[in-house]
Each structure stands twice: as structure tokens, then as C-alpha cells.
Amino acid sequence: MSADLRFVLEVIPSGPGLVLDLGGGSGQLRRPLESLAYQYINLDIRVFGHGEPSVVADAHNLPFGNAQFDLVISKDTLAAFHAALGGCDGCSSSFKARGPVRDMGAIYTSLSRR
Question: So what's the pLDDT on residue 97?
Fold first, then answer.
């Protein structure tokens, strides 16, 4: 497991809960998050195979109602979701107010160093 994936898993609290991995690609976080007692939903814009992602959709038009998730992860994909997150200024508060994160839920984002 890469150092950045280990870091993500260190900062995320244990579940139980429902987690949305925005742009989760091939689902690298599925097993580790399920081992933390989360039900894992991987959303990406294209199919990667082996059952990933769980949901094929565009993050700018999420197919979920408000307040559905306890945790949303956007690892190295935040720049692609500018409109979905309302921009970077105050993105967590606007995403929680109008988006899929439950009260007292969490949003984890990271940007690539590339």
C-alpha cells in the first residue's frame, strides 16, 4: 500500500457508516474502509472492471439524495469536482449543507503533488 493511502486510512475514523469515494477509480480504498466497518460506495465516471466503481456517474450530478453519507472521500480528484463541491473556498461546509453528507459527517480531500 502506498504512503498516501496509508495516510488517508490513518486520518479517517473507524465506522460504522456509509462512505462515498468520489472518483475512487479501481476501488483501492474498498477493502481498507470495509475493514473499518464502512459500507463502501465508489463513484467514478467510467468503468474500471472487477465490479468497480459501484456507481458510474458524474460527480457534478450525484445520483444520491442529501445527507446519505457519513464520510465522503475525494483523494487526488478535488480539482475535477470544482462545480460539485462549490469551489475550494468553504467546500466542506457548502457540500455538507447541499450535498450527500449527513450532519456530523466528514469530508476528506487530498490533492496530488504531481
Answer: 45
